[in-house]
Design goal:
This protein is an alpha/beta fold. Among the domains are: 86 residues, Orthogonal Bundle (Arc Repressor Mutant, subunit A), CATH 1.10.10.10; 101 residues, D-Maltodextrin-Binding Protein, domain 2 (3-Layer(aba) Sandwich), CATH 3.40.190.
């Protein structure tokens, strides 16, 4: 086993394919594939599972990757300390539902830990894709919510994918509206008061099930309903159409200004927001730092 082989494994995971990793490493795809097979034979494990859809880490591969990252990181620190070598670009990816605090935490992470070079990814995406991203290690961390309604379905998917849910906070539901909305001055609102306003929600694509909705009370019917794909569009429609959406109430004036405000929603539901990760994979330094940044972001 060589340090270079460990770097090969990490690069394949980062790129999602042997072909893309080979391009980045400036070697041929057959050479990279042979190096991985030699490593698997030497270690007596199957690191990657191959199929018509591509490659993915095996269960043993997930554990192996955790050790490989630690070894490579320590080796780079030694080289930097004694050989004045430049550290390799940092890698970290997170997939999340559309939460402003997740973006705030990402900004804080880069400000504190960003080197001269880094390759980071923040994916605001659909609920099912968040789970798939973390399962395949496209992202190290996923952020989503659970409650009594969707908990059984989400937990079943997480268990099947060998992922775990770690709670960040539990919130009472709020609506987000424009500061000029007629409801903006109320201390609380009821479901009945919202009936004549456009309801905005995030589209879940192929998996547009009630259980994958980002908004609680997803089974309610609405006279006016609009689905969107990104947070900026949703916020523009909140302002332009006097619409509303349902979320946690945690909002960042630094990123979103003061045109959008949260108002408590009068209902008995709760929203448990947390992060998911692989059970068998130790978190990287950046992942640990990002989780701490999340805690800081939601405490403001």
């Amino acid at each position: 086993m060589t340090l270079q082989q460990l770097k090969y494994v990490i690069e394949i995971v980062n790129r999602g394919s042997i072909n893309e990793a080979a391009k980045r490493l400036f070697i041929s795809q057959p050479s990279l594939s042979n190096a991985i097979r030699d490593l698997e034979e030497e270690m007596h494990i199957l690191i990657f599972e191959r199929s018509n859809k591509g490659i993915s880490l095996s269960k043993e591969g997930v554990e192996f990757l955790s050790y490989a990252r630690q070894v490579v990181e320590q080796a780079e620190l030694l080289e930097s300390r004694y050989l004045n070598a430049k550290l390799s670009p940092q890698h970290f990816s997170v997939s999340t539902q559309h939460y402003a605090f997740a973006v705030n935490a990402f900004v804080s992470l880069i400000r504190e830990y960003g080197q001269d070079e880094y390759e980071l990814a923040l994916r605001e995406t659909k609920t099912y894709e968040i789970i798939e991203d973390v399962k395949s290690l496209r992202s190290e961390i996923g952020i989503l919510y659970m409650n009594e309604f969707n908990g059984k379905v989400i937990n079943k998917l997480l268990k099947t994918a060998n992922l775990q849910f770690n709670s960040l906070f539990t919130a009472n539901p709020h609506i987000f509206v424009s500061s000029k909305n007629p409801l903006a001055r109320q201390s609380t609102v009821t479901i009945d008061q919202l009936r004549n306003y456009p309801y905005l929600s995030f589209d879940q694509g192929e998996y547009n099930s009630f259980h994958f909705a980002e908004e609680i009370l997803s089974t309610l019917s609405h006279k006016k309903s609009i689905r969107v794909n990104d947070r900026a569009t949703l916020f523009n429609l909140l302002i332009g159409l006097n619409g509303y959406t349902i979320s946690t109430g945690v909002l960042s004036a630094d990123l979103n200004g003061n045109e959008i405000i949260p108002i408590p929603l009068d209902c008995e539901e709760t929203i448990n927001v947390g992060w998911i990760s692989h059970r068998d994979l130790s978190l990287s330094k950046l992942a640990v730092a990002y989780i701490e940044a999340l805690k800081q972001a939601i405490s403001r």
